[in-house]
Each structure stands twice: as structure tokens, then as C-alpha cells.
Amino acid sequence: QHMDSTLRYIHNDSDLSTSSSFSPEEERKSKVQDVVPQALLDQYLSMTDPSRAQTVDTEIAKHCAYSLPGVALTLGRQNWHCLKDTYETLASDMQWKVRRTLAFSIHELAVILGDQLTAGDLVPVFNGFLKDLDEVRIGVLKHLHDFLKLLHVDKRREYLYQLQEFLVTDNSRNWRFRAELAEQLILLLDLYSARDIYDYLRPIAFSLCADKVSSVRWISYKLVSEMVKKLYLASTPTFVVDLMNELVEKFCRCHKWSGRQTFVFICQ
């Protein structure tokens, strides 16, 4: 009965607002929608209240973050304004587990929201995650290609300067981080021009080929071979010639046997 009266009050209030003197901006900021019962949505949005964590469940914010893409999909992008504040609150939550949950799903949310809302509301959050703890950064790294392919070309190019930062981790023993970077770079080859690949991705690939961990090196060999293919098919042949000359100089003529072995594996 309480929920019914609340819903009746909210919907009547929203009906009145259309004929009253509310500005479009004020209406946009309201949390009212007509897809699901408003009281249900209000309960969900209240999960970010710190008092709930103390009285209900210490991990309630994490559960809220986990469900957010599903809620966004249900409400539709036209009702994103209902969730935007909650999303930003969760993205700055003190618990890294909450931020990590959002980092792993930000690419899914980008598909739901479309390019305009993604550029305006998700890109700043994405940039924040890139500078976060490794536990959070791995979330955006695992789906880096999925997220960047949704951005406009100019915006996508801005991240070329930051890819190098993924080589640095809080713990140098975290080799899976570098292995994931190599996997993502293979996918990213399709998103960038031959010049961008040569100027930005090539130095990272060569660095990964000399990694201390063999699993990282094996994926990097595949990355370099895919890079050769990509540059070979480009309209400018100089990039692939320079790349192959560098491969010969760095690995084929290396004074260490491991370097020469690397050259053989890349050729294979």
C-alpha cells in the first residue's frame, strides 16, 4: 500500500510537471521514469548511501555496481540521467572492489549509452580508472579494445600516449598484466593507422618481446608478426621495411642467443 501511494504520488507529480513552469534542465535532472516502479528504482539508488553499508551489508555498494549495466539497459539511454549521479558516486567509492566492478563493465555500459553519452559521462570515469590501482586498471585493460572501438577516431588517438603506462605496474611480478596488454594490442592494430602503429605500438611490442616471463614473450611474438602483416598491407611500404630492419638489428644480430631465438620465433 505504501509503495502504491508513493508511485501514485510520483506519477501524478510528474504529470503536473509537464504543464507547470519546470525548466527542461530541472526535468532532466529528476530521477523520475516510467519503465519500472519508481519506488523500486529509488530503493536501488539508495544502495550507495553509506548508512546502508553499516546497517544492511558492507558490500551493498559492490552489489549496486555489479547490477548497474543491467539497470541501465532496462531503463534505456533516455533515462541515463536517473543513474548518472549514482554511477559517479560508485566510481569514486573508497572500496577498490566497487571501482573494479565498474571497470570490468564500463565497455558494456558504453554500448548501452551510445557514443555521445559515453564521450561525455564515461570517458572521464575511464580516465580515472586508468590511473587507479592495478586491481582496477586490469578491468579496463581486459576490455580496452571493446571500449576504444566505440570512441570517435580523434578521441581514440588520445589514448595512444597512455598505452605505455600499462607497462608499469604496482607489482613488477604481475606478469599477467603485461600479457593482457600484449593480447589487447593485437586487437588494437585494427583501430589505428600504420603511422600510429609504428610510432606508438611498436616500441611497446619490442619491450614486451624482451620481457622476463616467457608467457608474455610468446604473446608478444604473435603481436609483432601481426604488426608486420598490418604494416605490409598499408599503403606506405616504408613502415614495414623499417620494422623488419629493426627486427634484424635488435634480435637477429643480437649477441645473446635468446635474442636470436626471439627472431626465429617471430619468423615462425
TrEMBL record:
Isomerase: is it a keyword of this entry?
no
* One cellular-component annotation, GO: cytoplasm
Query: Does the keyword section mention Repeat?
Result: yes
Coiled coil feature spans: none
InterPro entries xref list: ARM-like, ARM-type_fold, PP2A_Regulatory_Subunit_A
GO terms, molecular function? protein phosphatase regulator activity
**Membrane-spanning residues:** none
- Which keywords annotate this record? Repeat
PANTHER family under this entry?
SERINE/THREONINE-PROTEIN PHOSPHATASE PP2A 65 KDA REGULATORY SUBUNIT (PTHR10648), SERINE_THREONINE-PROTEIN PHOSPHATASE 4 REGULATORY SUBUNIT 1 (PTHR10648:SF8)
Q: What is this protein called?
A: PP4R1 phosphatase
Q: Which organism is it from?
A: Rhadina sibilatrix
Biological classification of the source: Eukaryota, Metazoa, Chordata, Craniata, Vertebrata
